[in-house]
Fold:
Amino acid sequence: MLRFSLQHRLLAVTMLTTLVALFVALGAMVTYDLHAYHEGWVSDLQSQAELIGRSTAPALEFDDARVAHENLSLLRLQSRVHAAAVYGANGQSFATYTTSGVAPPARAEPPGVRYDGRDLLVVQSILQDGREIGRVYLRAEYGLWQRVPTYVGIATAVALAALIVALMLSMRLQRAVVQPILAIGSVARDVMLRQDYSRRAPKARDDEVGVLADSFNGMLGEIERHSREVLRLNEELEARVRERTAQLEASNEELRVATAAAEKANRAKSEFLSSMSHELRTPLNAIIGFGQLLGGSVAELGGERRQEYAEHIVGAGKHLLTLINEILNLARIESGHVELSLEPVPLDGLLDECRRMMEPLATQRGIVLRFETSGGFVVHADRTRLKQVLLNLVSNAIKYNRPNGTVTVGGELTDARQLRIAVRDTGAGLAPDQVEALFQPFNRLGHEAGPEQGTGIGLVVTKRLVELMGGRVGVQSTPGEGSVFWVELLASELATLPKTSAAHIDALPASVREGPPATVLYVEDNPASLRLVEELLRARRGLRLLTASNGRSGVEVARAERPDVILMDNNMPLMTGREAQALLKQDPRTAHIPVIALTANAMPDAAAASLKAGFFRYLTKPLDAAELMNALDSALQYSLERR
Amino acid sequence: MAVPSVRLRRRLLLLGMMALPAASRANGEASTEYQIKAAFVCKFGNYVEWPAEALGRSGEPFRIGVLGDEAVLEVLRRTAAAASVAGRPVEMLPLSRADLPDGLHAIYITRSVTAQAASALAAARGRPILTITELDQGRTAGMINFVIVDDKVRFDIQLPAAAQSGLKISARLLGVARRIEGRN
Structure:
């Protein structure tokens, strides 16, 4: 349809133009021709009239109508003249001639050219020697309108012929013009139908159509590129969607697991609460019951019974206190409020301390304690917490042992990096299902009604503390023979004492070296750390070192002695270093003393917070000797200037 | 021949009305005939060509000698007063004898002096003078000779005499002549 439409329109334009041009040309020609014909015919008739007048003048002058008739009758040769007449000077008809039956008027009409219907009338004067001696009248068919149909016929024929020629010519010529456009059109249609943007339109010539083809091809190329790009982006997008979906599924799965874990934890918490409630009520039951007995019948009771009741109440109260302390302890651990100070701890000294503390209980129970304290091992742990763990395990081993049994405590390296501390008893042992329930709160494995007092929380706390220190706790048990509770922690080495150079000592300010000895107070609960600093400062002359093992005693010593510089550990029993520093800061007697923090907590925000709280310097363990000396020197300098 | 018909009379009357004052209409039919002939005589000059020297300078009158009675002469004079030949005024000269004075361009010999016609024609022969007569058949006539045909005034023309006198008579005049002698 397109094909015909364009061609037809071009054809119509050509034809219309041709037709208009033809009509204008033909019209002009016909008009000119008619005009020329008219002029010619009129002038013909006028000359005819003149001729007749001339030839008829003598006849008029000499009154010879016959001659005039003869002259007029010559008009028969001119078939288009229908009537003629000659009039005398007085206007009377002199001679007439007619072929069509139309008679000339009886009297002469004024000279001139007139039209009567389809006839042309010419009246002309006959002059003789300047006088009008008569008039000639001629009536001829005009013939102008008769020519019009002929002209129309000729014009139609010419127009038809011209149109046919133009049609043939333009059909032949326009093919050359239209063909390239049609080719582009067909390519465009193909592209639309098949969505194939790789098609290209042929470029026939270097004219506007060629430019059209080029532009079209360029456009196609652009579309092709774009669609490829869109496809690529789409694929990318799909891949991304798949990836995101997978991630979403994974995170859904994680969420599901986390939800399950949370539910489980929630259930465990509920169970814990109900157990705790039960555990707290049990001693209260004894306290309230024996209290009522005591209150109701004091008089009737003998002294022996009263003594017994009071012992029950005191025992239950102590048990309750222990229970509450341990629960609080556990709660602190669970809520992450325990600050650990991990450092190399010599195992032998720690075991010695435990043995000294446990010996009274063991002796009381007739249990033999055997501590192997000659291994020389060093373990990476928080000294206080590790001691708490070992005390708990050893006291359990004593309490749940058989009479006259033994408890053996010792350390061994399981590999180069792991140190295992084992507490072996000779008790009844545990069945496998009991082992599983061992580290649950308030589970006392059937000893609830037994003679041994316990909370059932100790092992839970132990496990949590060991895990916080990066270790593991476990148990191996043989029913009837006994159990081995063990703790595995990272092995460590004691820091070697760095050699302090003489040059460093010489660098000390003269005022420091030569003045009265400066006093340094070191507050630290870990003997190894204490020892290390003692060794480091021994090389310095003019220094007096004081020590304190916890925050509270540190504050007391500082108030009493007013040292020049205080070195302060943070994680200590009774009072932390931070609390002690705050107290010192408030006290006008000690506020001016520079306090250097010396802790195992290397978190940057902890350091920033400490400096903000007023610590002079913040040093982290393991200690760098030079750094310590630098800090100490500047603190001493500062103190000296303030003195 | 002598008595013009009613038709002729009416026609002559019409011509006379045009050419003559109404008061001068005397002499009846003869007068009417001569009025026509006078008009013709005055017009002939327009259809004849004279040798150049014969006509004289322009502005000189065209002279016509008349041999006839006084009545005819009077008619001729009146007609001539209103006529012209080749742009010249027409002058009528009465002639008493047959010999012709110089300067005449034409002579008109009326019927009343038929006796003198021969001698007058003889005197004119060879001279550039147009001779007009009204003689009957058989007699030697002038170059133009009036006749009456069907009550109408007509004329015959003798070409040899004209040629002899060096006059050329226009073919247009020949076209209205009744008879032409000497035409090959």
